[in-house]
Amino acid sequence: MKKLFSLLAALALVITLAACSQVDPEIIYETVIEYVDVPGDTIYVEVPGEEIEVIVEIPGETITVEVIVEVPTNVENTRFYKPGVYFNNTEIAENGFYTYSVVIVDTYGKIAGIMFDETKTTSEFLVDEDGQLYVYIEGDGKSVPHTYRAIASNADFTDYPTASDAITANDLVVGIHQAEIAELSAIVAHESRQILGDDTWVGQTDLLISKIIADQTTYGVDTATSGNLVTAINVPGMNLTNVDELLALVQEILIGAAALEETDVLATTPVSGLYEAGYEFGVTGRLVGSSVSYYTSFVAVDAYGRIAGVYADATLASDIDGGHATKWILGEEGYPLPGGWDTQARAYGEAVVKNQGNPFQLFDSKDYDNGISLPGQIAGGFDFAEGVSHAYTDQIAGSTIGMEGIITATEAALTNLVYD
Fold it and tell me: Using CA atoms, how far apart are residues 107 and 266, in angstroms rounded to an integer?
C-alpha cells in the first residue's frame, strides 16, 4: 500500500492561508508529493452504492466477429420425424431406369433405415415352353462353339456359365440344336441394383446411408460440384457422382410426408424386441412368366430390437417401352386396384410390425376355406399344389393380394436380422 505524505510545514501553511482566505500572490507555494511503499497486502474496500458502468466510445467502424461454436452430438441429433414407411422415386431416366429410396422412421421418431435402389436389367434370357431359362454364351466359332446354356431360375448372377465351362446335356449348341433354339423366346428381366447384388453401387450408397442415419438428417453431408457431377466430400470412400439426386430423394421425404406435426405422438418408453437393430434387403428368386420379375422387401429394426417398418414391392416393366419399374413406382398402373400397389403393401407392412413377424394363416383362395402353408420356391416360381396359384390371408385388413411373394422376400430380410 502506498500512503501519501506531504511535508507537514507546507500542509500547515496551505491550510492556514486557505482558512483565512489570504493568499499572497508574491509567495510561490509548492506541494511536494512522495509515494512510499508500505509493506503488507493490498486491501480492497467495497464502497456502498450502485455499480457504475463506464462505456467508452472508440471512433471507427463497427466490427462484427463471427464465432463458430461446436454443438455437441447429443444436441445435433434431437431431430424427430413422423413414424412410418416412406417411398420416393425420380422421374424415369432416358435409359428407362428409375432411382428410388425408402425411408423407415421408428415409433420413437428416429430414422431406423434407408434404402436406395435403381431399376435396371443386365440379363438377356431366353426361355422354352417349359419355363427353362437359357443365357447365350458366345464362343470363338471354332474350338469353342456358340451355346445357349441352361441355368436354374435361382442361379446367382456371379455363377453364370462361361465359354470355358463344360457343355452339359441341358445346353443347346448352335449348329446342332437348331430346332430347339428356334423354339426359344426372348424374355426381359426386370431387375434392380439391389437384386443384382451390385456390390460397388450398393456399398457406396450404404456409406451415404450410414452418414444420414448417424446425423438423422441429410444436412450433414457436404457436397462438391464439378460440372454435372456432385460428390460427397465428407463421406469417406464414397465416389458416386449423383449424390445430390440421392440426398434429394430422402430430404423430400423428411421435410414432406415424414415431417413431424404437433398432433403426432412419439413413443418414449423403450420396448425390447427379438431382432438385431439394423436394416436388410430381401428378394425372392426369379419368377418366370411373360417376363422375369422379383418380389422385394426392405425391413428396418429399431434400436431396441423391434421391427420398425416393412417395405414390400415387386419389379415389372415400366410404362415406357424398354424401361424397368416396380409396382410401388407405377401405383395403380402397376397394380390396377383402388389405391394402387402401395395401399396393399402398406397394409401388409403394418400387420408385420403389429405382429413382429409373419404369423399369418394362408389359404388357397379368397374363399378362405382351405388352409395351406407358405409354398417353397422352385425354378421360375412357387411350389403350389395343382390348381393353386396364390396364397391369401384374411388376417390383414385392406390386403387382398397373393402373399407368397412378399412374405418370402420379407422373411429373407428378417433372416439376416435375427440374433445368431
Answer: 6
Same domain, 156 and 209: no
Q: How far apart are CA 12 and CA 9, in angstroms?
A: 5
Residues 157 and 224 in one domain: no
- Do 266 and 178 share a structural domain? no
Residue ranges of E strands in 2-53: 2-6, 33-37
Q: Is 297 in the same domain as 349?
A: yes
**Residues 273, 410 within the same domain:** yes
| Residue-wise burial string across 302-333, b where 16 or more C-beta atoms lie within 10 A, e elsewhere | bebbbbbbbbbbbbbbbeeeebbbbbbbbeee
Which of 278, 291, 221 is closest to 250 using CA atoms?
A: 221
Is 149 within 8 Å of 99 (Cβ atoms)?
A: no
Question: How many CB atoms are located within 10 Å of the residue 262 CB?
Answer: 4
- Where in the sequence is the domain holding 150, given as residue range(s)? 124-188
End-to-end CA distance of the chain: 79
Between strands 362-363 and 371-372, the pairing is antiparallel
The separation between CA 260 and the C-alpha centre of its own chain, rounded to angstroms, equals: 18
Inside any domain, residue 71? no
Residues 391, 375 contacting (CB under 8 angstroms): yes
| Residues in the chain, pLDDT under 50 | 1-20, 73-76
Beta bridge partners of 281: 298
Task: Indicate the SS3 state at residue 208.
Answer: helix
Return all residues near 98 (Cβ < 8 A) that are at least 6 apart: 89, 90, 91, 92, 118, 119, 318, 323, 324, 325, 326, 329
Residues 340 and 299 in one domain: yes
pTM of the model: 0.78
Tens of pLDDT, residues 341-367: 999 999 999 999 999 999 999 999 999
Residue type, 60: G
Q: Is residue 267 part of a domain?
A: yes
**Rounded Cα distance, 189 and 287, in Å:** 9
pLDDT in tens, 102-122: 999 999 999 999 999 999 887
User: DSSP per residue over 265-314, as a string?
Assistant: ----S----SB-SEEEEEE---EESSSEE-EEEEEEE-TTS-EEEEEEEE
402-417 as b/e: b if 16+ CB within 10 A: bbbbbbbbbbbbbeeb
Scanning the structure block, which residue is given the C-alpha cell 443347346?
172
